[in-house]
Amino acid sequence: MFDSFLTDAVDYLPMLLQGALTTIYITVTALVIATVLGLFWALLRVSGIAPLAHASRVLTNVIRGIPIIVVLFYMYFVIPEIGISLTAFQAGSLGLGIAYSSYMAEVFRAGIDAVDVGQFEAAQSIGMSRAKLMRRVVLPQALRIALPPYGNNVVMMLKDSSQTAVITVVELSMQSKLIAAATFQSSTVFTLVALMYLAMSLPMMFAIGRLEKRMGTQK
Q1: Cβ-count burial 88-116 (b if 16+ within 10 Å, e if not)
Q2: What are the C-alpha distances in Å from 213 to residues 102, 111, 118, 141, 219?
Q3: How many beta carbons lie within 10 A of that of residue 83, not counting itself?
Q4: In whole angstroms, what is the distance from residue 39 CA to residue 119 CA?
């Protein structure tokens, strides 16, 4: 049985690796979008300008309240109706990035709020502007504090990239479904897929853990 599994694995791996590459590409693209937008939402929340802070809070809560799959459907099926044409990959990356930006916003906001208030007072006492205070004093500390939950979100995003299959992105999970449907070797195919997701996730977890120790966020 094991020999049969290895034989089938050799046949299926090249096709599954193509799907895995797409999974990595879409995760990295969505991560960039989620990080930039999430930091932007977080900065609006702590800006001290009530309308902007309120708008950011409402927007992130709305995004968090909508399932990722619905966001993906909206990007792929609704956006083109207003004249913006997106490929499946673009819609998947954008939808996943927007969905996760709300979680990243909370991660960054919590990191900013965790910075000692004395840091704010000391910087303001020497005449530092709010923009310079955030850039030089608060954000470096906040990002270090936010690293552990940020890393968790990155791993979750890698796994949730499988949801882009619903809008025809041929990533790892979609490729596995196609192979399983054609070969009827579901146990072999999905075992390989599970191992491949694990192979992508574990190095990421290890790297994040090492980074946390290096930055002093993990004992």
Answers
A1: bbbbbbbbbbbbbbbbbbbbbbebbeebe
A2: 26, 17, 25, 15, 7
A3: 6
A4: 20
From CA 194, how far away is CA 191, in angstroms rounded? Answer: 5
Express each pLDDT in 164-199 by its tens digit. Answer: 999 999 899 999 999 999 988 888 899 999 999 999
Tens of pLDDT, residues 48-94: 889 999 999 999 999 999 999 999 999 999 998 988 989 999 999 99
* Of 146, 189, 183, the residue nearest 46 (C-alpha): 146
Query: pTM higher than 0.70, yes or no?
Result: yes
| Cβ proximity of 38 and 217 under 8 Å | no
**SS3 label, residue 171:** coil
Q: How far is CA 157 from CA 20, 59, 169, in A?
A: 14, 20, 15
25 is written with which tokens? Answer: 């590409």
Q: How does DSSP assign 184-219, residue by residue?
A: --HHHHHHHHHHHHHHHHHHHHHHHHHHHHHTT---
- Is the Cβ–Cβ distance between 144 and 216 less than 8 Å? yes
Query: Phi and psi dihedrals of 61, rounded to 5?
Result: -65, -40
Q: Which residue has the tokens 């000692």?
A: 116
Give long-range contacts, CB 8 A cutoff, 24+ apart: 199-203.
200/20, 200/23, 200/24, 200/158, 201/155, 201/158, 201/159
Burial of 32-41, coded b for 16+ CB within 10 Å and e otherwise, reads ebbbebbbeb
